[in-house]
Amino acid sequence: MRGWLLGGLSALVLMGAAGGARAQEAPEISAEDAAMLEALAEVDAAFGRAATSMGVPAPQLGPVMKALVTTLVAHPDDASDYSLVWGFDIFSERTDEGPSMPILTHAGQCTPPLAGMSVVGFRRLSQNGAVGHRCVFIGADPEESDAHGMVAETVLQNSERQLRSRIGLGAASDADGRAAEVLDARISTLEAAADEVDRLLVEMLLGRAGTVPVHESDPVEAPATRDGLTGDDLAVIDDLARQLDDSLAALADRLGVESVSVRPMMTVMLADVFKDLPDEGDYGFTVDFEIYAVTDTGGLDAGTADEDERQRRPVYADAPACSAANKNLPVIRFERVRMDGLSGHRCILSGQSPDVADAWVYMAWFVLEGPNAYLEVSTGAAAASETDGYALTSRIGLERLDALNTMAGQIEALALETVLDAGEQAGPDAE
Questions:
Q1: In 3D, which of 133, 136, 196, 185 has the Cα closest to residue 163?
Q2: What's the gap between Cα 157 and its chain centre?
Q3: Do residues 158 and 130 make contact, with C-beta atoms less than 8 angstroms apart?
Q4: CA distances (Å), 216 to each of 213, 219, 230, 292, in order?
Q5: Read out DSSP for 270-326?
Q6: Closest CA to 199 of 128, 106, 104
Q7: Which residue numbers in the chain have pLDDT < 70?
Q8: What is the pLDDT of residue 33?
Q9: In a 3-state reduction of DSSP, which class is residue 202?
Q10: φ/ψ (deg, to 5) at 165
Q11: Cβ 283 vs Cβ 392: under 8 Å
């Protein structure tokens, strides 16, 4: 596996399997912690090299990037049935120094970096004058069926410089299907890490990625916030992340599939939603969510459903239908979704509450149904203020709209993966 990944990604310097000999350099910590620290050092070094070549300050890795990287490479010492390798690198050059990297427009143009890999994700990128794309690949080593790898590759360009980043993760196991299972559980985290890398790269292209560090010896008063979060914010974030983790674990248990903790990843996504809430004004800001799925839809079809007496939500054909069903809230995104025998919609609404004039509300609905499965995921948020009104609450909400959309999409993807895993385990003959 290591040779396969190294051969195909020569720009990457991949670590050895987590829990290997490198942990001996720091005997006072576990092998898992040593692997995480080494992965973070590799990311920090790659950004440092790129920043030096660009003549800009190197970004300091924030809690989001740190949590995503450590979640990717997490390998408990007692998980001895598989091994991991990891790699990360950034290539940077001026646009007049070499051939221009092509900016792709659709997934069919992505070229897998390794034999045996196929495209599982594609995104066009455009932000602050930089344009580009991201391709995500996953697949098995054609010569070693017990080895699997996945890679997220991003290309970004502006008028002066072009960048390419690659995040690679490989797994190997003697147990049939185990390596693929390990990577499938991490693909959402890989894409979230790629999102954060892209954000930092755009900051570097703009020349504003670095920050001035404060020396520990400086006689400064301890700040009231940490990374733009108060103690109350951190407590709320921790509680919501726990609830999300518990909800997804309960869903996996109910559907009879293995669950993987997503608490670190959801903590950093929630931090993006809650950070830098304004100090002024008297207001409240809340986030909630709900995940519901069944693989036996007979009760739903009969209208009696399960013990919750739940019924199917309608699948809407277009944005106006979704808006009409939600008190005419403005729809900011709508798409019909079809995959693996399931069909449905994703509908995101936000704007002034139809019930409370001073409140801004957000709601993301994701509904998929099929003959043997039904999935419903909702992510909501609201800001309200009786004294400062909609002018304040709408500003609070709109400043968090991108982070809410990212978090909602991640929750939907994790729930969908669980439902699809349950379908695969049930087999094609499931009733």
A1: 133
A2: 23
A3: yes
A4: 9, 8, 21, 48
A5: HHHHHTT--SSS--EEEEEEEEEEES--HHHHHT--STT---PPPPPSSHHHHHHHT
A6: 128
A7: 1-35, 62-64, 75-79, 208-228, 298-310, 425-431
A8: 63
A9: helix
A10: -120, 150
A11: yes
Instruction: Tell me the pLDDT tens digit for each residue of 288-317.
Output: 999 998 887 766 654 444 445 567 888 898
Q: For 28, phi and psi rounded to 5 degrees? A: -80, -10
Question: What three-state secondary structure class fits 366?
Answer: strand
> Dihedral (C-alpha) 105, 106, 108, 111: value to the nearest 10 degrees?
60
Length in residues, the chain: 431
The residues facing 334 across adjacent strands are 347
Report in angstroms the alpha-carbon separations of 329 from 167, 173, 319, 321: 39, 50, 10, 11
In degrees, rounded to 5, the angle at the alpha carbon of residue 74 between the alpha carbons of residues 20 and 69 is: 110
pTM of the model: 0.51
Helix (H, G, I), strand (E, B), or coil: what is residue 377? strand
